[in-house]
């Protein structure tokens, strides 16, 4: 079990460092920033690479919503849900702390939203709570559905990481303007702790 929890910690750490790091460090870089497309790709690539790296150990959840979805779908034991959640949230917080150290190394640093999620004033596009809730519920639901489908016994096993990563990329391409895209409570919690906004609220 320890190796599984470590794998979930590392996978979630990489997701937050790579995904949120792309938003905080590279997306807005003058003239050559990666923009929303780059951030979407970064999130997808973090999941793709870590599912290949440690998915064989823990299943490659890196997301409390995925862990719960797999348990509800009868593909994961309920007794392991909370330990996975704890590892994922800790991984996200540690990654956000590392990202904060990196980002604060430049003069004039202001944390601002720090890649956190939100609605209203905290939404990149100013979308309200209803839009944010619908986006997060629908995209999280489809994310879990696709994960269950591509990891089912009849699906090609080696394609699952690619399909999962591309699904997360697609989700970000659509929903970054709405909520800054969460579909992952651990990812949201980690960076919210370091934001200068009301993200934790």
Describe this structure in words.
The chain has 201 residues and is mainly alpha-helical. It is 65% helix and 0% strand. Helix 4 runs parallel beside helix 7 and helix 5 packs antiparallel against helix 6. The protein is globular.
Q: How would you concisely characterize the structure shown here?
A:
This protein has seven helices and no strands. By secondary structure, the chain is mainly alpha-helical.
Cα(first) to Cα(last) distance is 33 Å
Provide the residue-averaged pLDDT.
Answer: 94
Number of strands: 0
Q: Based on helices, strands and strand pairing, what is the structural class?
A: mainly alpha
Number of helices: 7
The 3D shape can be described as globular
Measured on Cα atoms, how large is the radius of gyration?
16 Å
Strand content: under 5%
Order of helices and strands: HHHHHHH
Level of helix content?
Answer: 55-70%
Any descriptors?
65% helix, 201 residues, mainly alpha
């Amino acid at each position: 079990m320890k190796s599984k929890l470590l794998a979930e910690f590392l996978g979630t750490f990489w997701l937050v460092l790579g995904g949120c790091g792309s938003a905080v460090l590279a997306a807005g870089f003058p003239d050559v920033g990666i923009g929303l497309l780059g951030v979407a790709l970064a999130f997808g690539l973090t999941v793709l690479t870590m599912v290949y790296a440690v998915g064989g150990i823990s299943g490659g959840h890196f997301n409390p919503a995925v862990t719960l979805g797999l348990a509800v779908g009868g593909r994961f034991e309920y007794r392991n849900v909370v330990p996975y959640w704890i590892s994922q949230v800790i991984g996200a917080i540690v990654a956000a702390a590392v990202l904060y150290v990196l980002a604060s190394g430049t003069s004039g640093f202001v944390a601002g939203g720090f890649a956190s999620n939100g609605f209203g004033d905290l939404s990149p596009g100013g979308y309200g709570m209803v839009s944010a809730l619908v986006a997060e519920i629908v995209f999280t639901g489809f994310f879990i559905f696709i994960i269950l489908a591509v990891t089912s016994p009849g699906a090609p096993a080696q394609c699952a990481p690619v399909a999962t990563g591309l699904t997360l990329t697609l989700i970000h391409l659509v929903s970054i303007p709405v909520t800054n895209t969460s579909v992952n409570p651990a990812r949201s919690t980690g960076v919210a702790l370091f934001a200068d906004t009301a993200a934790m609220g």
